[in-house]
Design brief:
mainly alpha, Rna Polymerase Sigma Factor, Chain: A, 63% helix
Length: 185
Amino acid sequence: MPATPRSDPPLPQPDLLAALPRLRRYARVLTGDSSRADDLVQEALARAWEKRRLWAAGSDLRAWLFTVMHNVFVNQRALARHEKQHVSLDAEGEGHEAWQIPVRPMQYARVELMELMQHVGRLPVDQREVLLLAVVEEMRYEEIAAMLGIPVGTVMSRLSRAREKLRAAFSDGSNGVPASLKVVK
């Protein structure tokens, strides 16, 4: 007797249709975008159809579909990360938009630096010297304490107060502190 070809079990259509709203909702949570969510659901359903022989008839189809969709999403993200690492900057000739690397105008940095220096100059002397030793000279707390002859806790306190005053000075409508203040330990 010739062997009969094995047929894949059909996916139960009522259960499949009932799972669609939940799949779309989960896809929106994963992607954060309804258009990308629809694409994810479509890709997951296509993959589920291709792999339908792996579904155990009688088991929870919805759970299996969620697993398939999650795996598709994880694979897409891994592929996107991989492609980002290998994108040519000469993509313009390949039909893609030209890559533009945003460069901030230099005059803003200079203005912000001048403003920062003015605010640093307004700090009390004890806070200013600790701040400059920590940030500019990159000294550790212990080194600053030994140099100034004060406890390490006092160095930490003065540095914290100086940073807080600078944050407050730049948080009144500007975009925050223009340059991050380095934490030195």
